[in-house]
Design brief:
mainly alpha
């Protein structure tokens, strides 16, 4: 039980910070927190594919784009957001399943090139198929769902219209993040999750133990891609304007950075990685033209010190603290025993 209470306390603190954010941040700050929630959903999916199943992918940004364009097009045709959200996740799941087939034949950097090629193809489709995606002009005026009446929020809390709209969708973003996190938590605690880890550690041994490596490889890509599509489904109404460059390779690399910096294979890795990849550059803007340089140096130093990421670093610190406490307790026990034995 001693190890449970610190986790419960940390969860309560995080929940309190997220709940207090709308009352202390400006609309731009609330928007940034919403963007962190959206990108964390996509990073959770990539963490499942890469961190748990060991299948590298540089196409997660493309699936965010697929989800975003699906919702933008569907809502423009009067489809409710909830139905469009499900459609975006389902479409990404199917495409991700198909993308998983090359993973059955190639591994490691070869698989990275395959997913990179898919990301490039998806980008070209978004840019060139103007009849569907709007091309380089993108899609503007994407409808945003509301949980509460904006006028009521303004009256209750004295917020401006911009603050009320930002907070309303911030709650939606957090709700979607909580939903996706609960689904992922269930997956990794289920037999599926153990099969994914076995696939990552040693595919040959997993196959000899009866794990259907072919099916679980496809499932790793499909479920991870589904999370990317769900993230895009929330991203589109958040920004209300999408265009192809938003889903280019840079987004996939940023999501990969979130997973690795936070801790690949750790459930909380994408959450911590998002703080670095999304929020840290904004916190460093007071340095003006040097903020990107400082940000890059911080990431390089972190990776050199702790390749397992922030969560891995926290685990190492907790283990060192436990050893220190044990070392302090051992001499005290030994001394008392010696004193008892003396006449």
């Amino acid at each position: 039980m001693s190890g449970v209470w610190p986790r419960v306390a940390a969860a309560v603190v995080v929940a309190a910070v997220l709940a207090a954010a709308p009352f202390v941040l400006k609309p731009s700050g609330v928007y940034l927190m919403s963007y962190w929630a959206v990108t964390t959903i996509a990073a959770l999916g990539l963490n499942l594919t890469l961190g748990y199943a060991g299948q590298i992918s540089l196409a997660q940004g493309a699936f965010v784009g697929i989800g975003a364009y699906t919702v933008a097009i569907a809502t423009a045709h009067s489809v409710p957001f909830a139905a469009a959200f499900v459609l975006a996740g389902a479409l990404s799941f199917v495409i991700g399943w198909l993308l998983g087939y090359p993973a059955l034949r190639v591994q490691h950097h070869y698989l990275a090139f395959v997913t990179l090629a898919f990301s490039t193809v998806a980008f070209l489709v978004m840019r060139n198929e103007e009849w569907l995606t709007g091309g380089v002009y993108g899609i503007n005026g994407i409808a945003r769902s509301n949980l509460w009446d904006i006028a009521t929020l303004r009256e209750l809390f004295g917020w401006s219209a911009a603050q009320a709209r930002a907070v309303d969708f911030y709650v939606i973003s957090l709700a979607m993040l909580a939903l996706c996190s609960a689904v992922l938590w269930w997956i990794i605690r289920s037999p599926w999750g153990r099969a994914f880890v076995a696939l990552r550690e040693n595919p040959t041994r997993a196959l000899s133990l009866g794990v259907d490596t072919r099916r679980y490889t496809l499932m790793a890509f499909a479920i991870g891609s589904c999370f990317g599509g769900c993230a895009g489904a929330v991203y589109a109404p958040l920004v209300q304007f999408i265009e192809p460059n938003s889903f280019a390779l840079g987004l996939s690399l940023n999501l990969l950075l979130m997973v690795i910096v936070g801790g690949s294979g750790y459930f909380l890795g994408p959450f911590a990685g998002g703080l670095v990849a999304i929020l840290a550059p904004e916190w460093l803007r007071f340095t003006e033209g040097y903020y990107l340089l400082i940000y890059a140096l911080l990431v390089m130093v972190l990776m050199a010190i702790c390749p397992t990421g922030l969560i891995g670093l926290a685990e190492r610190a907790a283990a060192a603290l436990s050893r220190l406490r044990a070392a302090r307790a051992t001499p005290a026990t030994g001394t008392s025993g010696t004193e008892t034995a003396l006449p």
